[in-house]
Amino acid sequence: MDFETGRLARLATGSVTVHAGSTHVLVTCVAAPQRAPDSFAQLDATLLMHPAMQTADWRRAQEAIQNLNTAPLWVDVREHASARGLIPTSYHRRESAPTEKEVITARLIDRALRPTLPRGYCTETQLIAEVLSADGQLDPDTLAINGAATALGLAFQRCFPMEIQRPPLVAAVRIARLASTEALQAPSTMAKPMSLQEQQPRWIIQPSHAERQASDLDLVFVGTSDGRCIALEGEAKAVAPADLVEACRLANAAVAPLLEHQEQILQRDREQVSKRDSITGARSTFWAVPRQALLEEAFRHSGERFEAIYADAPDKTERGIAVAQETARTVAYLQQNRNWSSSSATSLPDTEAVGVTEASLAVLQVSRQAWRRVLQQRQRRVDGRLPDEMRQMEAHVQVLPADTCHGSALVSRGETQVLAVATLGFPSLAKRLDAYGGGSDTKQFYVHYQFPPYCNNQLGRSDALYRRRRREVGHGMLAERALRAVLPNDLWHAVRLEANVLASAGSTSMAAAAAGSLALMDAGLPIAGPVAGISIGGLLANVSSAECPSSACSTMMPLNEKDPLADLLLVDLLGLEDFFGDFDFKIAGTEQGITAMQLDVKQYGLRLDQIANALEKARAVHRAQLEYVLRAALPAGVARPCLPSQAPRRGSWNIALADRGRLLGVGGHRIRELEQQTGCTIQLEENGSVSLWAPNEQALEQALETLQQAMRRPTCGDEYAGRVLQVLDFGAIVEIQTSPGSIREQGLLHRSAFVSSAEWSRVQVGDSVTVRVTQVDQRTGSLRFAQLASTAPATVPLDENENNNNNNKSSTGSQGDCGSSTTL
């Protein structure tokens, strides 16, 4: 992996081009310190414009206050179609809305870099990663992460004084594990016995798409120079926690050279920046950090009241109202009072006003510190649970009518509630992807996660139910990865799983994974087993600001020199615990092992031993969840024995190769007629069989019956009413139909086979004649008839187009006894 600066996008604050083979990714970082606020007064103007602040609705204003405590960092990713030598297939022939892959990569970059930003960082910063060239072998996401970290470092040391410590560098690699080399061998070499070395699992750094497909573990690891993991994302096929820890250990060693390379680039640029600063002078900046005196007074005034709220408000709604009311009272107190208690270590001069933003941020830190103290002193969480206690869980299957929905399940965990609905469709309904960066261009199984505003008792825009937001895309992908490992390898359906969050109180993505597995089982899919998901979070040991530059992990003031909360793990996080905690580790798996994971940290990374502890804790919770699910939702412990009757079906019918022409008809008109008649899709396979794709079970049965009737061939001794198509010197060509809707057959009625010479002399085209089959050629399928009754004019004239088609028909080969079989 090579880095290049100073060649492309020279006007951007920081720009880096990362190369790996023929894959090139340009990452630019633009920081605008000139647009950043220089005081809390400017932030007050922004906050007061929020509708909730104008109406004094402090409960809704909490979101705006929390946003002010978040660094203004935007990340966008774009994979150009030209990177693969393609033209977009959209109407305007240009890239449109961000694809699912672009959103997932952008979120991964954000999670990797946001924890490294300093506390109080309020300079608007935008990172854009563009895939300029892609060889289709290597996923460009890790290149984008490494380029973004370098570009952010360049922008930071160019925009801010040199004495301000820049964000620590991070680097990313992808690691995969091949169980053996068998999956990658060509068919011609499969017969060769594999050596012992080839049978051993093999770890691959930066694997290709083919290697990732054949692997049982695919992981993106983002690490730091001190051996911590700051972001983790991947999927697996039910692997053990020890395997994941080993993957992290190998990946941690692989990021070291990348970090050294980044540091060299920044060191060269730092020397040039120092020369410019000596001429232009030092630059100043503003950090949105409340003053220490204000923090101390806010804690003295409302710390105990916040602790009382978190100690005795298990209900989310009740707790939210109480926190909003106390926040409003404390902010008003801090703004209106100047003569604070003498117990404060310091006080503010009367001339220094306290704005609503500074006061709100101070109260937010007091609220977080109060939550931490309650957890420390009581060893109980806000809802009364122990740290390792899971919320009460309920699971139900077939919650929607089975005659309309293929599969449905409802999972409730505490106040969180998710409804999952599985829908099966034809293979043509697979999701199409613009995989310009490489990989498959279709996806047979996909999850749509929906987070409507009512799940939090909030108002939303009218398009909130169908607008695709980044958070929904990310949570849906996490649930999809968790479930992908349990799907059967021979799955032919296109499967859409809709995960609707009906109520949100934390861990909705993990509830979606559990509900999704039950919905798939209710739909009759033979999955490997149900999936459990859990969020592991908690509090890590307090670290100094130098070790942890993130605003989220910096404590307001030391509470206890002997903090017993070091590395305290919390199981099944609430939304409040996710926001105030130091990390959120989402882990999903089956009874056999882990299938998906995603790490989001607010601290400056986790050590490998902390990751191992979280994984082991999650596995214990998985087993408890799965035991409950199998007992409460699926008493038999197995999926529905067959697909629901209204689900799409696939059938097959064996047909002789000689009869393919009879089924197709001239120009394929006959097979199109059968498709219109049955409502099914009929496809001829290379092995001679006929595949039928029916919308439901009844349609498949009717289609098979219709097809068998249509392909039924006459046998010797059968009698039919036919029509004369053509009169020749030696006889007449007669057309018969074995049954209504069947394919019409033609045969020869020799002049000697007429009942009399008089009948032969007056036969004409279009006459009706009753015949008996006297001969069937087993090789060619040609027929010979004998007349049973005198001819008569046809009562229904032949359709002109049909007559033309029949005259153009040719005899086809014979068919033996036709057997049918249906596969579901």
TrEMBL record:
Any GO BP annotation: mitochondrial mRNA catabolic process
Where are the residues of the annotated region Disordered? 794-824
Q: Return one GO MF term.
A: RNA binding
GO terms under cellular component: cytosol; mitochondrion
A Pfam cross-reference name: RNase_PH
Cite the EC number. 2.7.7.8
Query: SUPFAM superfamilies from the entry?
Result: Eukaryotic type KH-domain (KH-domain type I) (SSF54791), Nucleic acid-binding proteins (SSF50249), Ribonuclease PH domain 2-like (SSF55666), Ribosomal protein S5 domain 2-like (SSF54211)
Q: Where is the composition biased (Polar residues)?
A: 809-824
Q: Which UniProt keywords apply?
A: Nucleotidyltransferase, RNA-binding, Transferase
Describe the family membership recorded for this protein in Swiss-Prot or TrEMBL. Belongs to the polyribonucleotide nucleotidyltransferase family.
- This chain's protein is named polyribonucleotide nucleotidyltransferase
Report the gene name.
Answer: PNPT1
